[in-house]
Design brief:
Keywords: Hydrolase, Magnesium, Manganese, Metal-binding
Radius of gyration: 17 Å
Cofactor: Mn(2+); Mg(2+)
CATH architecture: 4-Layer Sandwich
Helix content: 10-25%
Organism: Schleiferilactobacillus shenzhenensis LY-73
Shape: globular
Number of helices: 5
GO molecular function, one term: metal ion binding
Structural class: alpha+beta
Family: Belongs to the DNA repair enzymes AP/ExoA family.
Oligomer: single chain
CATH superfamily: Endonuclease/exonuclease/phosphatase
Distance between the termini: 31 Å
């Protein structure tokens, strides 16, 4: 049976990961749509050779910071950057592709930072992003993915008891994600694997990855009414090159656009 495969990966610097076998991984995964967060680059700073894919980049104004990208075998009906008018973002955090049967949104959610200095900014972002997704969902179903910078439940983090005041696991951030999902969206991995303990991010410090002292902060979520077409969700923990690993969403071919994109010149 044909299916559609979607991949999302925070590469923690696209130029850096290109030197660590990214293109070989990209080719091997053979995703229909491949979303990237934290590209950390500006236009023209790297050539990413992905034959057969349309490429879309949203760059942060600040050099070497944030940024997102999407590579798609299928040409979307429309592409938008950012989430205006809900939030005026100059950090390149969101790209939205509209396809005939759904919206695809990739997002790099702001981190609340050391000593939670950006927690208020993050709270404003969460509220705006929720409003943006809700608005899209009124028009057609939504699949959204990315590094959402929150470990939702205690099962999603190795050491929950010592991290309740850490960026990405504060009560406020976790509650915000609960509200985002409530009555509208489904966390794909937790739906298909309700008790499975797997992580998608490990600090570079303290040999965290070798000890599997990680966090699950990378997601694919989707509108509830898409559930009949969603077949699986995985965390690809064996893929190296970043402090994050990719996450995957599989759907039936019912969501596939009609024609593959022609290769970009």
């Amino acid at each position: 049976m044909n299916m559609m495969k979607l991949i999302s990966w925070n590469v923690n610097g696209l130029r850096a990961v290109l030197k660590k076998g990214f293109l070989a991984t990209f080719t091997a995964l053979d995703a229909d749509i491949f979303c990237i967060q934290e590209t950390k680059m500006q236009a023209g700073q790297a050539e990413v050779n992905t034959p057969g894919y349309h490429q879309y980049f949203n760059y942060a104004e600040r050099k070497g910071y944030s940024g997102t990208a999407v590579f798609s075998k299928y040409e979307p009906l429309n592409v938008t950057y950012g989430i205006k008018p809900f939030f005026d973002d100059d950090e390149g955090r969101v790209i939205t592709l509209e396809f005939p049967k759904f919206f695809l949104v990739t997002c790099y959610t702001p981190n609340s930072g050391g000593e939670l200095k950006r927690l208020d900014f993050r709270a404003g972002w969460d509220e705006a992003f929720r409003a943006y997704l809700t608005d899209l969902d009124k028009r057609k179903p939504v699949i959204f993915c990315g590094d959402l910078n929150v470990a939702h439940e205690e099962i999603d983090i190795k050491n929950p008891t010592t991290n309740h005041h850490s960026a990405g696991f504060t009560d406020q951030e976790r509650a915000g994600f609960t509200v985002l999902l409530k009555d509208r969206f489904i966390d794909s991995f937790r739906h298909f694997h309700p008790t499975k303990v797997e992580y998608s991010w490990w600090s570079y410090r303290f040999a965290a990855r070798s000890r599997n002292a990680g966090w699950r902060i990378d997601y694919f979520c989707y509108s509830q009414r898409l559930q009949p077409e969603i077949t699986d969700a995985q965390i690809l923990t064996t893929i190296l090159g970043s402090d994050h690993c990719p996450v995957e969403l599989d759907t039936t071919d019912a969501l596939l656009p009609d024609q593959p994109a022609k290769e970009d010149a």
